[in-house]
Design goal:
This protein has about 400 residues and is α/β, with parallel strands linked by helices. It contains 14 helices and twelve strands. The longest helix is centred in the last third of the chain and has 36 residues. It binds pyridoxal-5'-phosphate.
């Protein structure tokens, strides 16, 4: 009998984008900042704006607030725009967890800043508030927080430390669309919230992202930089008769076709995320039970869990193995059972380019080998419970020595 493959992930119901995509094609207007972009902006504003402290929630205020949500070509572009808006001077430092995607550190370097690593805590693998003060200097301008795997960082102590030192917070929410911290969505706490709608995320548009600007004093810089350094936005909204080159900038507006796909996915987001959260919770339950077995404790250091009482979006579920060889063996074992497991990103300080930013104050005992010790299990909205049970049984067999 042919073995059915359980993939690592699969986008959800992309076909629902057809009518919207066709609308764009029929209109002949495919370039950015058209009607589909405006609809995505309005959709995101209705989700996020009631939670942004600087913005109240009347329909008019939400409509106004859409002006501070920028659709961009990727999560990377959102991070770049946020850091560019800080107008870093030579010597300015931005703190980044070493367990981050390279885009966060690249954004700092591209803006002329200096990357300073902070360690992550061992339970949720997000920036460790106890280590953060060790890396703050008079040159620190900002910290980039990664809500890894859809689990929010421990925002209360981090917020207090950043406020005390006048350090700006940039939230990397590439994996945490609609995750919450104390009932508020991630991306609404910092000065900036950066989202990714890359094809591997929960809500996808191929390549795309969004930037929430929660402090209106940065809006103008973001508008200019996103539009090639021109005041084209003011021209489009009828405020000026022509537009011209006003500052350094780049091109981050996504195509209307991508926005048509995104709009269809944003409309499906409640369904996508409730399915993923349900599967995430089932994994947590099963593996909490598995970890009670002494044979497993010897090999498994931990797994994804909620940061209670906060709401993970169910983006991914990982098992953290004690050594890379066991992780590799588990991935091979799953593959033999027709199940696709994957490791995750290599900590920046262990990558060839990232080693140069290590400082004497860094202690990477939690991060050591993290990229190769994590095994992410299949988790996607269309995954059925029997498929998930098959994954759980295969992992169980591996650790019970039945493999
Ligand atoms: C934490 C994190 N930040 C940033 C990015 C970059 O997003 P994009 O691929 O949309 O540029 C990713 C992508 O995987 C990510 O996981």
């Amino acid at each position: 009998m042919e073995q059915r493959i359980i993939p690592f992930q699969k986008p959800y119901r992309l076909e629902t984008a057809r009518p919207l995509a066709w609308q764009v094609l029929a209109s002949g207007r495919t370039e950015g900042d058209g009607p589909m972009t405006a609809r995505c902006q309005a959709h995101l504003a209705s989700q996020f704006s009631p939670h942004r402290s600087s913005i109240q929630s009347s329909p008019h205020q939400i409509q106004q607030a859409a002006q501070s949500i920028f659709l961009v070509t990727s999560g990377t572009a959102a991070l770049e725009l946020a850091v560019q808006a800080l107008k870093l001077q030579p010597g300015d430092e931005v703190i980044v967890p070493s367990f981050a995607y390279p885009s966060a550190a690249n954004a700092v370097l591209l803006a002329g800043g200096t990357v300073v690593y902070c360690e992550v805590e061992p339970v949720h693998l997000t920036l460790d508030p106890a280590r953060l003060p060790l890396h703050i200097t008079p040159n620190t301008r900002a910290v980039i927080l990664v809500h890894y795997g859809g689990i929010s960082c421990d925002l209360a102590p981090i917020h207090a430390i950043c406020t005390a030192h006048d350090v700006c917070i940039i939230e990397d929410c590439a994996q945490s669309y609609l995750s919450t911290w104390q009932g508020r969505p991630t991306g609404t706490f910092g000065t900036f919230g950066c989202f990714s709608f890359h094809g591997t995320k929960d809500v996808v548009c191929g390549e795309g992202g969004a930037l929430l600007v929660n402090d209106p004093s940065y809006l103008e810089r973001v508008r200019l930089f996103r539009q090639k350094g021109t005041n084209r936005d003011a021209f489009t909204s009828g405020q000026v008769a022509f537009y011209d080159w006003q500052s350094v900038g780049s091109s981050y507006a996504p195509s209307e076709l991508a926005m048509a796909l995104l709009l269809s996915q944003l409309e499906l987001a409640p369904e996508i995320l409730s399915r993923k959260r349900h599967l995430f919770d089932r994994y947590v339950q099963q593996f909490t039970w598995l970890l009670d077995k002494p044979a497993c404790q010897a090999q498994i250091a931990g797994h994804s869990t909620h940061r209670e009482p906060d709401g993970a979006n169910g983006h991914l579920f990982y098992l953290l193995l004690r050594d890379p060889a066991t992780a590799a063996a588990l991935i091979r074992h799953l593959a033999a059972a027709g199940i696709e497991g994957r490791t995750h990103f290599v900590p920046l300080h262990e990558s060839p380019f990232g080693r140069r930013f290590i400082r004497p104050a860094n202690d990477f005992s939690v991060e050591s080998g993290l990229g190769q010790r994590l095994v992410r299990l299949p988790l996607f909205a269309a995954m059925s419970e029997p498929e998930q049970d098959q994954v759980i049984a295969a992992v169980d067999a591996f650790f019970q020595g039945d493999a």
